[in-house]
Amino acid sequence: MDDRPFPLLGRRRIARSSFLTFEREHRWAPDGSGVRREVVRHPGSVVVVPWDGTHVHALRQYRAPVDAVVLELPAGKLDVRDEPPAQTAIRECVEEIGMRPERVRLLQQCWISPGFTDEYTSIFLAEGLETVPSDPQGAEELHAEMVRLDPDEVEALLDEGGLRDATTIIGLMALLRHLER
């Protein structure tokens, strides 16, 4: 199958926020019909799997779009100009959990929800963690609760469906796979 079977006819910006752009695209389908799609453009993001050798560090944090407290790994958007994703991962780890990794290694990359957004995330393993002052960015991070999980607790959460954030699930599964090697 052709990777790009729906040629772009045109696009129009509908709205823009501080970091998102909402566009309407018009494309040709393979059968010759026209297709209209709304697309959310996103600068990209990182997720960090902070591993201290025995525990992974995560957060329970309120998320307004789903009106729920979510167990998730530290994460953030690529919103600092020319900052490489690995550096963003280090910055987010410091900001959210007060730990500076000595090294980060790319575990996985994926689109978040390619049916409506181009957000692409890089998931990093962070090791050699040094405790430093955290730097919460916003009310949700300020009121987040730190959680430490050992591999058995991670397995149990995955088995019981106790995780609902997709990038956290992917990151923790990648960690377990890494530990098996």
What's this, in brief?
This protein is of the alpha+beta class and 181 residues long. It has helices at 85-97, 139-142, 151-160, 166-180, and strands at 8-16, 21-28, 34-41, 45-50, 56-63, 68-72, 75-77, 99-111, 120-131, 145-149.
Mean pLDDT: 94
**Number of helical segments?**
4
Total beta strand runs: 10
- How widely separated are the two ends? 34 Å
Order of helices and strands: EEEEEEEHEEHEHH
Q: How is the biggest beta sheet arranged?
A: 4 strands, mixed
Portion of residues within helices:
10-25%
Rg, please?
Answer: 18 Å
Going by helix content, strand content and strand pairing, the class is: alpha+beta
Strand order of the largest sheet: 7-4-9-8
Strand content: 35-45%
Model regions low in confidence, pLDDT < 50 over at least 5 residues: none
The rough form would be described as globular
